Amino acid sequence: MSTDIEFADDDQAFINSQQFQDIKSWTHDHLLSRIEELGAEFGRWSRASIQQFVELEVDSFVRLRRVPINDREMQLISDALTKELAGFGPLEDLLNDPAVEDILINGYQNVYVSRHGVLERETVRFADSEHVMRIVRRILAPLGRRLDESNPMVDARLPDGGRINVIIEPLAIDGLSVSIRKFRKEPLTPADLVKLGTFDAGMAQLLEIAVRARCNVLVSGGTSSGKTSLLNALASFIPARERVITIEDTAELSLGTSHVVRLESRPGGFDGQGVVSIRDLLRNSLRMRPDRIIVGEVRGAEVIEMMQAMNTGHEGSMGTIHASSPRECLYRLEMLAGFAGYQGSEVSLRRQIANAIDFIVQIGRLSNGQRRIISLSEVTGVNDNVVAMQELYRYEPIVSPDGEERDRWVSLGIAPHSPKITRFRQSLQRASQHGGDHRA
Length: 440
Prior knowledge:
Number of domains: 3
CATH class of the largest domain: Alpha Beta
Domain Bacterial type II secretion system protein E: 85-363
Organism: Variovorax gossypii
Number of helices: 14
Family: Belongs to the GSP E family.
Shape: elongated
Number of strands: 17
Pfam families: T2SSE (PF00437)
Distance between the termini: 50 Å
Strand content: 15-25%
GO molecular function, one term: ATP hydrolysis activity
CATH topology of the largest domain: Rossmann fold
CATH architecture of the largest domain: 3-Layer(aba) Sandwich
Radius of gyration: 26 Å
CATH superfamily of the largest domain: P-loop containing nucleotide triphosphate hydrolases
C-alpha cells in the first residue's frame, strides 16, 4: 500500500515538474505534424486508437531524441497527450472526479477546485492562455457557442447538466476566466441530506409535510450554499400524479417525478435579439396547466408573476433566492418587486408576499465547507405593516467536552400555523379512518 502511495507521489511530482511540461510540449508539436500528415483519417479514429497512436509516437520520439525518462514517466506523458488530443486536457480528470463541485480558472496559471464546499488551489497546469482556450473551445464546440472578440462572454449548459461560464480579455484583465459548475449524476435525496448532516430527521418530516400539503417554500442562501440541491431534494416529496414545471436560467434541477416540464431561459444573440427571460417563461407556464411551478432562482422581475401564481391556485410552488437570512429574503422580494415596477402600495406588496410564501428555509455554508440548514421559518402574516415570521427550527451547534463541534437543531416547540398543513393532516386522518395507507 505504501509503495502505491510513493508511486502516486512520484507521478504527481513528475507531472508538476517543468521537465514534464517541456517534454509534453515537444512531443505535442511532433504529434501535430504527424496528425497533419494523416489528414481527415485521424478524425475518424476512436479514443483507443488515438491512445495507441500516441503511445507509439511518444516511444519513437523519446528513443530518437534520447529523452532521459523511464517507462512510467513515458506512460504519464502519453496519457496526458491522449487527453489533449481526444479529451479535455488537464481538465479531464477534474471533470471526471465525482468529488469536484466547481472548477475555477483565473488565467492559465491559477486553477482552483471546490470539493465538499472547500475551495483549494489545484496543481493542474496549462502551458499558456492559448492552451486553456483550446480546451474551452473543445468544450463549447458541441454546444454551438462561439467565444471570440465579438462575443467575449459565454454562459452555457453542458450535456451532463453542469454549466460553464467563460469571459476573455479585454473584459477579463488578468487573462481569461473560466467557471465550471459540475452536476451530480445522482441528485441528493432528503435521506442523503440527513445522512450528510444538512438537517435532522425532525426537520425532514416537517419539510415533507409542508411540500405534500402544497405550502409555498422559498430556499434562501448565499452563493454555493446548496440551495439548488436542497430544492431538488424537497421536490422529491411532490406526488407523482402532479404536473410540475421547472423554470431556470441554466437547467440544473433533476426531479425524480415523471410529469415534469423543464424550461430554460435564453440569453439571446450578440445583437440582443431572441432573449427569452425567466419572466417570459413564467408567464407562459401559467398557460400550461401546472399543478406546481418551481423557479430555479428568483432574481428579477419574475418575482411579481411568481407571487401571483402562488396566490392564484398554484400552491405548492417553490424557488430559491440569494439572501443571508429569512428577513433579508423578504426584503429582497420587496426590492425585486419594486425594480419590476410593482404599482401597488408598500402595505399591499407585503400582504401579497405574506399570502404567497408559507415557509423560508435558510441554508448556509459553514467555514469547513459543510452545508447546513440554519433556520426554518414560517411566514404568519402582516403585523403593523411588517411581514411576520415565526422561527420553527434554529441551528445551534454544541461543543463536546473533547472540543469537537457537533450539529444540533433546536425546535422552538411551535407547531406551524398554516391552514394548509391543518387541512392536510385532517385529510390524512380521514383517509386512515377509511383504511387508507398514507404517511404524514
